[in-house]
Write a structure and sequence with these properties.
Blueprint (H helix, E strand, L loop, with lengths): L12 H17 L12 H14 L13 H14 L1 H16 L8 E10 L10 E3 L4 E10 L5 E8 L4 H15 L5 E4 L5 H10 L2 E4 L17 H10 L12 H20 L11
Parallel strand pairs: 1-5, 5-6
Antiparallel strand pairs: 1-3, 2-3, 3-4
Helix pairs in contact: 1-4, 2-3, 2-8, 4-8, 5-6
């Protein structure tokens, strides 16, 4: 790491040690044409991605003491397209679960969607209007375990029905964590999702709200999704959807949660907005 003044989003030595083996392996498999190792420290590339995630800045507004935007974008898109960012995320998730005394993969997940406003310039053909929530933009679907760790993420147009998001999430969960046998969903998901769960070997339970409850009442196990969404909102890049491609928006979620899990594994806290 360079001698520059550190940012609060920077990786500590301990947190970098959790991620560095995956990045080093990737670099070994992708040598440059000329054979050199590249002009930029990989730790600084990741620091730039985390800085952007936390602050929400545009590429061209990355600080000058971090690698240039062109270099950071190159690695971000490479790692998005070949799944490196998800590999890092999954390895950290397994370690967190084991640290908490659980098996590497869960048996139960919680599914939920969140509609987000899209920024100006986001292509209209990948956005829409959520008819129920009256939000123009995109819909982010998450599958999380009982610790609030992300198992799968799907980003689609906000106009897409929750059923479509739910079936896509179930497909990703079934493909990536075959230990999952049950999923809890709210009443926004319908019989289509329940039936699709049967097809992929996951029992889907619709958790109905008690009609006697007034205001917000946390539902057992499903409340953990609120915590996960709260963690994502600490990352300003995720408060609104700025990404031209839904796959990029999904990648941003993996980086944000990886940041959180690396702190959990090293017993360091995530700075709040007021202190960041």
């Amino acid at each position: 790491m360079s001698d520059r003044q550190s940012y609060k989003s920077d990786l500590s030595d301990e947190r970098w040690a959790l991620i560095e083996p995956v990045i080093a392996s990737w670099k070994a498999r992708h040598p440059s044409v000329s054979g050199h190792q590249g002009n930029y420290d990989m730790r600084e590339i990741v620091n730039a991605l985390l800085y952007q995630s936390r602050t929400g800045c545009q590429w061209d507004y990355l600080p000058h003491d971090l690698p240039p935007a062109g270099a950071v974008k190159y690695y971000f898109y490479k790692w998005r397209d070949d799944g490196t960012e998800q590999t890092i995320h999954d390895l950290l998730r397994w370690q967190v679960r084991e640290k908490k005394g659980r098996l590497a993969d869960p048996s139960l997940v919680v599914l939920e969607t969140q509609s987000l406003h899209a920024a100006v310039g986001v292509p209209a053909d990948t956005t829409g209007r959520d008819a129920h929530k009256k939000v123009p933009g995109r819909k982010r679907g998450l599958a999380v375990d009982v610790l609030g760790l992300v198992i799968a993420v799907v980003v689609l147009a906000a106009s897409v029905h929750d059923n479509t998001v739910g079936t896509a999430l179930l497909d990703k969960v079934a493909a990536g964590a075959d230990t999952v046998k049950k999923a809890l969903v709210d009443q926004g998901f319908k019989k289509t999702v329940v039936d699709h769960g049967t097809q992929v070997g996951i029992e889907v339970e619709v958790v109905e709200r008690n009609p006697a409850d007034a205001g917000f009442v946390p539902q057992p196990k499903r409340w953990i999704m609120e915590q996960t969404n709260g963690i994502l909102m600490l990352h300003r890049r995720l408060v609104r959807d700025y990404e031209h491609r839904p796959a990029t928006a999904e990648s941003r979620v993996y980086w944000a949660i990886s940041d959180r899990m690396s702190r959990m594994l090293t017993d360091t806290s995530t700075p709040a907005w007021r202190g960041a």
